[in-house]
Write a structure and sequence with these properties.
MetI-like fold, 14 helices, mainly alpha
C-alpha cells in the first residue's frame, strides 16, 4: 500500500508539473497584448513598453516561467495584472463558493442515484423498474441549464410556482451567515444533483445488475437469504466500488465545469472568475486558476485510487 501511495503521489506531482508548462505555453500563444489591455486603448507605445518592463513581460518566456514556478512552490500565485490584488486570496474566496456547491451537488446526486439505482436493479423486470431506468435516461439527457431554469420556475423565490429558494447571488458576508449561504446554493446544488444523480443512478443500476448474476449472490441465497437481502448485504457494497470511480470523475468535472451553474444563479464562484479573467487577458490569474483546478482534479483522482485500495482487498492481494 505504501509503495502504491508513493507512486500515485509521484504521478500527481508529475502531472501538476506538466500542467504548469502546458498552461503557461498555451496562454502565451493566445492573440492579444496583455500590456495593451492594462494600459488601455489610449496608452502610448512608451507607456506600453513601461508596463511590459514593470510586469516582466519583456523577459524571455523561460525566465517568466521559472519565476512563476518558483512562486508556485512558495504557494504564491502572484498578483493580478488587472486588479492588482493577490491571486491566491481571490481564488480562495471564489473556492469558498464553488467547492461547497460541488460537494452539495454530489451529495444530492448520491441521495438520488444510489437508492433509486438499487431499486431499479432489484425491480428491473417490473414496470416500476423500467420507469426508473427511462426517467434516468431522460434526466441525464436534459442540459443542466434547462434543469436549472425549470427549478427556478418551480421553486424560485418571487418567480416560481412555489416561492421557496433564492435564485440569484450570494451573501456579501459569505459563510458568516451560514443559513443565507446554504439557501443561496440550495437551488444550484439541487440542479447539479438531479443531472448528476441520473448518471449515478444509471451506473449504480448497471453495477448492481451485474453483481446479481454472480455466483456469490446465489451462494448467499442458498444459505437462507432472499435475493433482495443478498443483493443489499453483499451486492451493493461490491457494486459501490465501481461506482466510486464514476462519482470521482463527476466530481472532478463539476469542479472545472461549474461555470454554467454559477452564471445562471449569479454565484461569484471560480468558474465565473475564470471566464472573466480570460476576457480581460489577466494571464497570471488565469494561470493560477487553471493550475488550482487541475490540482483539484488530480487530487480527486488520487483520493479515489487510494480509496479503491482501502475498501477493495482484491486490489491489495493482486499487488501483494
Amino acid at each position: 500500500m505504501l509503495s502504491f501511495t508513493l507512486r500515485r503521489v509521484a504521478l500527481f506531482v508529475g502531472g501538476l508539473f506538466v500542467t504548469t508548462i502546458v498552461v503557461f505555453v498555451v496562454l502565451r500563444v493566445l492573440p492579444g497584448d496583455v500590456a495593451q489591455v492594462i494600459g488601455g486603448i489610449k496608452a502610448t507605445p512608451e507607456q506600453i513598453e513601461q508596463i511590459r518592463s514593470e510586469y516582466g513581460l519583456d523577459q524571455p518566456l523561460v525566465v517568466q516561467y521559472v519565476a512563476w514556478l518558483g512562486g508556485l512552490l512558495r504557494f504564491d500565485l502572484g498578483t493580478s495584472l488587472i486588479t492588482h490584488t493577490p491571486i491566491g486570496a481571490e481564488i480562495a474566496e471564489k473556492l469558498s463558493v464553488t467547492l461547497p456547491l460541488c460537494v452539495a451537488g454530489i451529495a444530492v446526486a448520491l441521495v438520488i442515484g444510489v437508492p433509486l439505482g438499487v431499486y431499479g436493479a432489484l425491480r428491473h423486470r417490473t414496470t416500476a423498474g423500467r420507469v426508473v431506468a427511462y426517467v434516468a435516461q431522460a434526466a441525464a439527457a436534459v442540459p443542466v441549464l434547462w434543469t436549472g431554469l425549470i427549478l427556478i420556475l418551480l421553486l424560485g423565490r418571487g418567480v416560481g410556482a412555489v416561492s421557496l429558494l433564492p435564485t440569484q447571488g450570494f451573501p456579501k458576508d459569505g459563510w458568516a451567515d451560514p443559513a443565507a449561504a446554504l439557501a443561496s446554493i440550495a437551488l444550484p446544488a439541487l440542479t447539479i444533483g438531479i443531472v448528476e444523480g441520473a448518471v449515478v443512478l444509471r451506473y449504480m443500476r448497471s453495477a448492481v445488475l451485474n453483481e446479481m448474476n454472480l455466483d456469490y449472490i446465489r451462494t448467499a441465497m442458498s444459505r437462507g437469504l432472499t435475493r433482495t437481502g443478498a443483493v443489499l448485504r453483499h451486492g451493493v457494497p461490491n457494486a459501490s466500488i465501481s461506482v466510486l470511480s464514476v462519482v470521482g470523475l463527476q466530481t472532478a468535472s463539476l469542479v472545472g465545469g461549474a461555470v454554467v451553474i454559477e452564471e445562471l444563479f449569479a454565484l461569484p464562484g471560480l468558474g465565473a472568475k475564470l471566464v472573466s479573467d480570460v476576457g480581460n487577458r489577466d494571464l497570471l490569474s488565469v494561470q493560477g486558476i487553471m493550475v488550482v483546478l487541475t490540482g483539484l482534479v488530480l487530487a480527486i483522482g488520487l483520493v479515489v485510487d487510494l480509496a479503491h485500495r482501502v475498501i477493495d482487498p482484491r486490489q491489495r492481494r493482486v499487488e501483494a
